[in-house]
């Protein structure tokens, strides 16, 4: 058991190192001189030379990598060209917003996706289930921004219940904060719940065809109890993977949603950093995204081992 | 058990005209058609047939995992064909089932102890945890698993051990009647004998009656007192296990025996040609005529009924007399059997 976790943590650390190496390497290969990018094509060569010195671009690449990793370990990701603020601070601020959005969206996704998926698994052939199936099909096929525009039109423009854009920090005004996050999280959850519904449905149906369900039936276990204590646990194991992917997705910044609703989260930061060719920021964000993916996968793995004895014992 | 003994006894299970239809698109498929069968207390009744012949459907109807389309099932004289919900639950205590594949028939996500104890909790047997633990320990011991298995997970167990657990789960409620639905066909040959002997030992120890379903004629004749041979949803032959293996009456039974390996002596090997016809579209006349070596024009036109012959044997074939020389028992008696 302990061995399992030690192996997982070791793998996790190695992955992180490789990610940082790769992130660094990719930006060394990129064509173009960062100093030139900052100063513009018409810049004076002396100026460029000076800036290169400042940025340490004249040092050999391995040394720069070590410096960069050293900075990483101290939490220093460099300074944004555009905002003239430490990259770590920019990402930290945006992360706060994105995490709130993610938590909201995921709670909605789980609250809708799991029960509806289970319900559909039992009623999928009934005519009254058709609208629900169609709605989940719609969630899969309609892009989130289309749905966002629809939501804004109804709840902000027509009804005026919720703001259409902007973000209020929780510490400033909790109610306004919740309001500002409602529409974007609904927009995200619409798509991800649709995915979850399908997976839950298929997984439950698959488990219910297993003989252990018949065994329980023949023991006189009531149907509800069979679902609760046998089928659900077994069918949620594969669903966990999908849920993990959704978490990664949302935490990675919903670039489009955050832009539509002007939320100052990771997604917004990603798009502005790319538009303004803010290399240190882009580099920091790529590293952040990689870490999110690795961490989420790690957590899903650990959760798996908690839920599924087959994995724990291997 | 001899025939004389059986005649003196009320059957434990009395099954009449049991039929199960499944819908397949617009078609209705008769998986089991008009089965009449008595199973006596303490016997092992073997049901044998190819896969898809309806033997599992039949077994699952007996323990109410499937509802029959028509027909009746009586348990010790009491009609249990379509019990109300509460009685259905009580019936679980009297009739149990062991499935074929022990890899899917026990929940992989629960410990062995939990799984064996669950039926006790469901039926409110054993007031204290201690009382239940004791019962679980006893049953585990009876199936040859020691107490250390309680905390183990299904995936740590071999197929044979898993099947022992499945048997323990079936026996914890102390049933009278157990359907064994191909209980060894998913196991290695080396383990099969162990599990079969365990089942026979448990029958003595707990006074059980088995319906033993299998496609393997060797296994069935080893286990059973009497054997029923099923083909396309109905019985084609029924009788004493020993008598059937000595001289099968139905050409299908004959073919099954000649296909099983340890057939002794000069009997010539009959190889069936063609597949089992679809139960959705059964052949006219005798359902077996498409594959029968002794098929006549009459067989193609007229469906043979299950008739009784000398020695308490039953067979559904037009040509028993001319092929074996056995004489049918007078018709009125058979009618009685039907309408009972």
Question: What is this structure, in a nutshell?
Answer:
The complex is a heterodimer of chains A (314) and B (340). With 314 residues, chain A is mostly helical.
Relative helix content of chain A: over 70%
Overall pLDDT score of chain B = 85
Strand order of the largest sheet of chain B: 6-7-8-3-9-10-12-11
Helix proportion of residues of chain B, in percent?
25-40%
Describe the structure.
- The complex is a heterodimer of chains A (314) and B (340).
- By secondary structure, chain A is mainly α.
- Chain A is built from 14 helices and no strands.
- Chain A has helices spanning 2-29, 34-39, 45-55, 61-73, 87-123, 130-141, 144-158, 174-208, 211-218, 223-251, 255-260, 266-275, 279-307, 309-312.
- The radius of gyration of chain A is 24 Å and the shape is globular.
- The relative contact order of chain A is 0.13.
- Chain B is an alpha/beta fold and 340 residues long.
- Chain B is built from 13 helices and twelve strands.
- In chain B, strands 6-7-8-3-9-10-12-11 form an eight-stranded mixed β-sheet, sandwiched between helices. Chain B has a four-stranded antiparallel β-sheet with strand order 2-1-4-5.
- In chain B, a hairpin with a 2-residue loop joins strand 4 and strand 5.
- The two termini of chain B are 23 Å apart.
- Residues 332-340 of chain B have low confidence and may be disordered.
- Chains A and B meet through helix 9 and helix 10 of A and helix 3, helix 4 and helix 6 of B.
